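Cont'd.
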Amino acid sequence: MKKITILGSTGSIGTSAIDVIRAHRDEFQIVAMSAHGNHKLLMEQIEEFNPIYVSIGTEEGRRAIEERYPELTVYMGEEGLKKLGALDEADIVLTAVSGNVGIEATVEAVKKGKRIALANKETLVCAGELINKMVEEYGAEIIPVDSEHSALFQSLESGRREEVSKLIITASGGPFRGRTTKDLEKVKLEDALKHPNWAMGRKITIDSSTLVNKGLEVIEAHYLFGIDYEDIEVVVHPQSIVHSLVEFRDRSVIAQLGITDMKVPIQYAFTYPERGENNLTERLDLVKLSRLDFEAPDMEVFKGLKFAFEAGKIGMSMPLIYNTANEVAVDLFLQGKIQYLDIYRIIEEAMGKHTPVELKNIEQIKEIDRSLRDEIYRKY
Ligand SMILES: NC(=O)c1ccc[n+]([C@@H]2O[C@H](COP(=O)([O-])OP(=O)(O)OC[C@H]3O[C@@H](n4cnc5c(N)ncnc54)[C@H](OP(=O)(O)O)[C@@H]3O)[C@@H](O)[C@H]2O)c1
């Protein structure tokens, strides 16, 4: 029986993970789960899975949970996430919170040498070098959950690392594929929240439309697989069936395909190196699908991707700046305080003003993050 902690059990990835666990109750057990604002759903999950520990983001949620489940250990906020990350009882920690609040909890799990099923891409983007060093030091293991990185991870099994010549990450192109910058000036929140292929949380859905999500994935792939940015290519593939590909030096290209369902990579991160049964996901029907299309991304219109390559190549603290500026900008856009294209302006300005520094510890990362957040929020 594998014991699992889910950080962010009420989100899109968290609830898909719950579906996977529900379908394999003889193999997986939930020992801990966390939510932020949605304590009602968390309480339904507690009722069904009977965890030993939970963490919640609000005082109201904490009171409601403690009243109904007096036996349960209830933690709160970021400290609570860290406690859950460090639990001795868990074999696997699924990090499925959104934004960079997941970093410290991931660090705790790494220090305990656990398997981290990593959905939260912001963690490696902001603290990739530090986390990689710690993973080695503490003998932890990161198995990616993001569908593209899971595809790369699976395709990489076909050869040795030194035989890889290129990673090819696919992108759906989002709801605004083919649009011009002038078209993007008029984008409304409800248009940006309509992803053509994937049902996801609000923040990542906006990130997918700006291609910042793809940018974060490029930086994440660099840290996960140790491949130079020059050898990472992004290709737009509107059907989202080929989840990503690896080109080897003999020109063989190995890909992982499947229909768009996050339960597949989540389950793989739990069962790796084995593959479990999956009766929840539809089979891929190539004949019905009949065609797969590919095109180059337009990085002049969708600058989110261009900025990511720039930030990644500069390295040090620049990917952190790229991520923090984007997190704040997306939040402001979701609140209706800025226009769509201001997201790019905010990222570009933050990167332009920043002098990159080497990142030595998590405290320093938190400080840089906090000061940039304050600066942008003060301005808007
Ligand atoms: N969705 C996908 O298909 C997908 C694919 C690949 C990677 N990812 C990555 O996976 C992560 C989660 O994405 P998602 O789409 O599942 O997001 P989501 O639906 O917005 O869920 C986010 C989860 O994090 C919790 N949360 C939000 N703010 C928090 C905070 N300040 N402190 C603690 N917990 C907090 C939420 O709790 P409440 O709901 O209770 O407020 C919820 O459980 C992101 O990093 C995303 O980039 C997602």
